[in-house]
C-alpha cells in the first residue's frame, strides 16, 4: 500500500512586495504555501536577512558585539557599508534613534537626509524604522518618505494611534509601509484593513507582528506569526 502525502496548497498568496530600486532591489513574499512546504506550492522569493543599525551610537551594547562595529559607530553610512561589504547583509534596517524626543530630539529633516545618503551608498535595499515615539514618527516618517520618494523604500512603523499620517505619506510618495501590531492578530488584521481603505495597495504593506525574545514570549510570537500566515493562505 502506497502512502500519499496529503497536499494542500493555499487558496491565496502572500502579497509580493518590491523593496528598493535596481540594482539594489529585492522581492519578498509571493508564496502560496507555508514555510518549507514547497512540496505544496511555490516559494518564489527567499527570505532576506537585514542587518540592524542605528543613526547614533547605541548605549549599553556588550563588548562582544561592539568590537565588530566600534570603528563605524560614529557614522551610520560607514556602519551600513560595513554590514554589506564585510558581512554580506542582504538589506539594512536603520533605526532613527536620534529623533527620539527623550534623547537627542534631532530635526526630522536632518534625520531624513541621512536615510537618503545611506540609500545612495549601499547596493542593497534600505528599511527604515522611526524613533518609536508615535507623535514624532508621524512627522519624521513623512519626511523620510518624501526625501526618498518613489524608491520603493520600506519604512514604518504605522501603529494603531498614528497609522493615518504615515500611511498617507507612503501612498503620496509611492513607497512601502510597515504596520506594527504588538503580538495581536486582530489588530494586525485591522491595521491592514484600515490602511488599504486609505488607498494604500496591499502589495505596499509589510506586517511586523513583533517577536518577544525570551521564554513563553517566543512561543506566543511564533504562534501569532503562524496564525497570520494560515489566515492569509487558506
Automatic annotation (TrEMBL):
Q: Which InterPro entries match?
A: Ac-CoA_synth_d_su_TIM-brl (IPR016041), ACDS_complex_subunit (IPR051069), Dihydropteroate_synth-like_sf (IPR011005)
Q: Which Gene3D superfamilies match?
A: Dihydropteroate synthase-like
**Which part of the chain is the CO dehydrogenase/acetyl-CoA synthase delta subunit TIM barrel domain?**
16-233
Q: Which NCBIfam families match?
A: PRK04452.1-2 (NF003376)
The protein depicted here goes by the name CO dehydrogenase/acetyl-CoA synthase delta subunit TIM barrel domain-containing protein
Source taxonomy lineage?
unclassified sequences, metagenomes, ecological metagenomes
Amino acid at each position: 500500500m502506497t502512502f500519499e502525502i496529503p497536499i494542500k496548497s493555499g487558496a491565496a498568496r502572500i502579497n509580493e512586495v518590491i523593496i528598493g530600486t535596481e540594482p539594489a532591489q529585492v522581492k519578498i513574499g509571493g508564496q502560496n504555501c507555508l514555510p518549507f512546504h514547497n512540496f505544496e506550492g511555490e516559494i518564489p522569493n527567499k527570505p532576506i536577512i537585514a542587518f540592524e543599525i542605528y543613526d547614533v551610537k547605541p548605549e549599553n551594547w556588550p563588548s562582544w558585539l561592539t568590537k565588530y562595529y566600534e570603528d563605524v559607530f560614529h557614522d551610520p553610512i560607514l556602519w551600513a557599508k560595513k554590514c554589506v561589504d564585510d558581512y554580506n547583509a542582504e538589506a539594512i534596517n536603520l533605526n532613527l534613534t536620534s529623533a527620539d524626543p527623550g534623547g537627542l530630539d534631532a530635526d526630522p529633516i536632518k534625520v531624513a537626509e541621512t536615510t537618503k545618503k545611506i540609500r545612495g551608498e549601499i547596493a542593497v535595499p534600505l528599511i527604515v524604522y522611526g524613533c518609536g515615539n508615535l507623535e514624532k514618527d508621524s512627522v519624521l516618517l513623512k519626511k523620510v518618505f518624501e526625501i526618498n520618494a518613489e524608491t520603493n523604500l520600506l519604512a514604518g512603523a504605522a501603529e494603531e494611534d498614528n497609522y493615518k499620517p504615515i500611511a498617507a505619506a507612503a501612498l503620496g510618495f509611492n513607497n512601502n509601509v510597515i504596520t506594527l501590531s504588538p503580538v495581536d492578530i486582530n489588530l494586525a488584521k485591522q491595521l491592514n484593513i484600515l490602511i488599504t481603505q486609505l488607498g494604500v495597495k496591499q502589495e505596499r504593506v509589510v506586517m511586523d507582528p513583533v517577536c518577544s525574545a525570551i521564554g513563553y514570549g517566543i512561543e506566543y510570537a511564533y504562534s501569532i506569526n503562524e496564525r497570520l500566515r494560515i489566515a492569509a493562505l487558506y
